[in-house]
């Protein structure tokens, strides 16, 4: 499953985000963290390629054991260990952060994948890395776990704020276009934008089971009203809902 997730995450990404890496395949060469392009100056050297499959097997035996500790503590320990193994040539951070949410869904802590920790960890990247390194060097587990729990709490609060912004925006859009007596299809397109805010017209038509012409006509009206906009240089043409994107806080 983790290899499949890695394959999906790295499919179609830019070269600097891992496009040159063989997606879904465990590392074949030794990787390292820190240093200036040389392993002898590295700050941390993860598991060698030959030991990586066994290290992952042990990690997931821990994750899937019957007698578990507190769910967030388990997630903190597993996330550290995954990053210490660093099983892929690139994309380890993305897969490792996804693993946190998957674990919390699997053990019933989260009903849906609503915990998104990347923004917090990026804002505190130096401390995040330093504390994981301190676990490897000094066994400083307590400091790492405290930081991880702080990150979960802050990320959960941020998620609540995002959900509230999205709910307020969706309500405002529906009120605006219902009172203007727009078509029911336009309201359905608006609701669809909150599931995924960048789509092609063909995708919109298919998702709603309507004709391309019907979807295109309503999209044109949403563009005219400033709710949607065309993404320049895309083919097929992509439609972006900037208000939804802004409410998500992703750009």
Q: Structurally, how many domains make up the residues?
A: 2
Q: Which strands sit side by side, in order, in the main sheet?
A: 1-3-2
Q: How does the major sheet shape up? A: 3 strands, antiparallel
Please give the oligomerization state of what you see: single chain
Proportion in β-strands: under 5%
Compute the CA-based radius of gyration. 22 Å
Please count the helical segments: 11
User: Which stretches of 5+ consecutive residues score pLDDT under 50?
Assistant: none
Helix content: 55-70%
Strand-pairing-aware structural class: mainly alpha
Average the pLDDT over all residues and give the rounded result: 91
Distance between the termini: 30 Å
What is the element string, with H for helices and E for strands? HHHHHHHHEHHEEH
CATH homologous superfamily of the largest domain - what is it?
Fido-like domain
What's the shape?
A: elongated
CATH architecture of the largest domain: Orthogonal Bundle
What's the β-strand tally?
3
The CATH topology annotation of the largest domain reads as Fic-like fold
The CATH class designation of the largest domain is: Mainly Alpha
Structural account:
With 251 residues, the chain is mainly alpha-helical. Helix content is 59%, strand content 4%. The chain has two domains: 2-157, Orthogonal Bundle (Fic-like fold), CATH 1.10.3290.10; 182-248, Arc Repressor Mutant, subunit A. It is built from eleven helices and three strands; from the N terminus they run ααααααααβααββα. A three-stranded antiparallel β-sheet has the order 1-3-2. The protein is elongated, with a radius of gyration of 22 Å.
